[in-house]
């Protein structure tokens, strides 16, 4: 009697019918056990939504057009002091075969605003600057007596549609609210080109046409826009890198969920192996489940991200500084993210499938889990990876971004390999704890594969915000840098324009203003600020009749013919004390005392003064460049009151700043306080909030998986008399232990990595607002313990009956 021959596989594709059968069986099991995969699916969907919205946001970070050039590649500035010469140059430009666009500019002083307001004459839908002008409300000014203003100008000056503006001495009705869609911080007043004579004109061209090519006589040196072709590559790399880290985080949690699923299917997989299935076919059952879950989650997440993008885009415009087109979506990157999400889910299912396929058939049929691997080897590998990553970060610092990115990935992998050992170490440390705590810790160690993956995910969810908080804090102005300190205020009698003029006031007016300034911040030190004036500098009358004087300037040479003015003040004992300078050490031949490095000159003859360098604050708006009294005597200069410097012994409050602003607007002054960089602060807060919520979500999902897997043990404990307090303690200990390990590995590893990068500037750690570390380090474990305690304690619905998966 001959034995029946086994069925032959299809020619050229051996085993294909078996693979199809196994995939169909995986699909049926997935539909039957959909509730066990809901955690992974929801997490992948949420991550894909975040990745799609993040990819679209990062892709929209650069403005759609250069805020100065638009789509042109060259801008030439025509000086409008000679109208006839300007008209001649404009005729030459229009006669040129190359297309050109002309935009007029005039700087006008405004009360309460430190910088002049730009009166801009620009046509709508210009050939090059069309993307630099839009009307949000109202209409375009089409007559001589009409104007449109930006939101910033309207808010500062209290303007509205239908009101009037007359900064240039000509009253105009406001008929519209304008903006520069490529640069929302661009503040200007838009007027009709035919109704004004601008002080200067910007000529936009394309094709690198220079002033010499056209024979222009009033044109300054041109500025060419040089685009960086690598910007798109860098941004795409950032998107893919961020999405990869997010999906790696999800892979850790998905691996824990698939480990639970593999344990539930252990008997079924053992029966499959008993009837002749190979190890590869056993692994295929689990990997097919991961593939199907990944495809479903990727598609749903992409649809959800695209549906959410119209709600996210308008709220991101103030952060990125320009308008975002809803249709501007990086479809190629989203396609790559789809593939990454599918690969992530499949890879997360492959690892537990590999472990299960190695379980002997008899142990699988008995539902005995695989033997736990030794944690010593993974701990050694984690130590090696972390040491290598920190070493590369210390070498790369802030000057080699790509090696730093690779080192960051090494540290993330180190956390993955360190998590199982950390779980086992915590269980050993709790050997003498109360019974409920000890049982929970031992249960975590018994299922260290999924609990270790959960710890790794929580660590990444907390480590990423910790890194971003430190990096963003480093980007912010430090207590010793920026425009001013948080306890300082500059009150100036008028805003400085390019001619370095200061308005003149009578002694009675100055005394009244000084009395009011002294009352702005009670108890503060008020230092009068004076500037040097030469008798050769005439007075000027503004459009409103106010008299102003040009002051002596000190310049930083730009080239052989031009220099950039530096704000200077007359030295006084108060200013010396403010800068920490001993006046006795200032020689009689010294002209300038400054904290600035490099060469300084005194225009117009570019004389090199005798300079005394000092070490002082690095604030850009603080009076750190002083003209000595000896220099005043040698040059025959006099002084004029320019303002006051307010130094308080505590940070200025928002009410004090608002009162100072109101006082400045009503008296034609300008007030400057510290710029707190709200965009950086909001981004930092958003990162910590998202990381905190993400970590809580991972905790909830992981604790649910672990406690559901231990349902049989919980029924046994309840049947033997375990109280509700013990059941609550089990869940609270599980959640608290995972959160604690996540804080130690994630935040601790992030701080060590950042310590390597900022080892030469450790003060950045002291500048981190205390609310962020308290939220990450203390609040998360506390919330996890409280939530685990409150949400547990319910008696199992069936104690005597074992629930089948």
UniProtKB/TrEMBL annotation:
UniProt entry keywords in alphabetical sequence: Cell membrane, Membrane, Transmembrane, Transmembrane helix
InterPro entries registered for this protein in UniProt: ABC3_permease_C, Membrane_comp_ABC_pdt
Residues annotated as transmembrane: 38-58, 232-261, 282-309, 329-351, 378-397, 409-431, 452-475, 688-708, 729-758, 770-792
Subcellular location: Cell membrane
Keyword Manganese: no
Keyword Nucleotide-binding: no
Superkingdom field: Bacteria
Pfam families: FtsX
Membrane topology term: Multi-pass membrane protein
Domain ABC3 transporter permease C-terminal: residue ranges: 243-355
PANTHER family, alphabetized: INNER MEMBRANE PROTEIN, MEMBRANE COMPONENT OF PREDICTED ABC SUPERFAMILY METABOLITE UPTAKE TRANSPORTER
Official protein name in the record: FtsX-like permease family protein
